Amino acid sequence: MISIIISSVNKANLQQVSENIDATIGIPFEIVATDNSKGQMGICEVYNKAMLRAQYDFLCFVHEDVLIKTNNWGQKLLALFEQDPKLGLVGIAGSSYKPLAPSGVGGVGAYTHYHNLIQSFKYKKEKARHAYHNPGKQRLAEVVCIDGVFMATTREIAEEFMFDEITLKGFHGYDIDFSLSVSQKYKVAVTFDILLNHFSEGLFNDVWMEENLKLHNKWNKFLPIKACKLTAEQIFFIEKNTFKNFIDELIKFNYPITTAIKMLWKNRRFFQLNSKLFFKLKFHIFKKYIKSKPSLASYIW
What we know:
Blueprint: E1 2-8, H1 11-24, E2 29-35, H2 43-53, E3 58-62, E4 66-68, H3 73-83, E5 87-91, E6 93-95, E7 97-98, E8 113-119, E9 129-133, E10 140-143, E11 145-146, E12 150-154, H4 155-161, H5 174-183, E13 187-191, E14 196-198, H6 206-219, E15 225-226, H7 232-252, H8 257-266, H9 270-273, H10 277-292, H11 296-300
Domain Streptomycin biosynthesis protein StrF: 5-208
Organism: Mucilaginibacter ginsenosidivorax
Pfam families: Glyco_tranf_2_5
């Protein structure tokens, strides 16, 4: 038996996903939905309060703009937890490496990403596609972070860690933060036995960046975290390109160069990964900012 927890902003979407769950889950369930259409609560607060209302021992946090395609998926989900007592959190998309460099669920590079979903688009003019990536060709891949579109755990684990509504008051970063917390004690995994259609892609904007910076400040001393074997060359590639992407995002959202420099110094453990990486990234910061804002050149030099 599973409690399905949903933060709702659209009654029609909630009705549609509720009917879909009823038709596909295959076991007793309840929908614990919270009307958050005015955005009066951050998603961490919504989820923490919903947990107190849930009556079952398994919890599944799901976005309302999805349709689950797999029949009897509830049975499949519970079987995963029954087969492995160390399993703490299951999703349908995630990464087995969370970089030191600020990022989303995972860094730049395909080595560590695992996902299985039909991705539809709300903000981009693109056709829906089956986003499938399973480099280890596993039915259940161990990761360190999962995406918040679908997150399943037990009541005991959810109550042990809770969602950090003090640090994260908006609608971003909650999934990564909760994943990293759970991964300190239990396994986090992506299942390839459950398929869903997600009707919107991630929206990466300045609000997302602000929450992401809070998240990385919180977890900095623990990063990088991995659940896979990577060569030194692969780690170098991921960290270098993830940090470069981070700089591009800072510039796009008009963050000052001081934000980039502070993050680089906070992440000076890059020295331990590769002695040249820190200096390469420092040079990259100046180069990109001067290119985007030539007036900075006289200030920097």
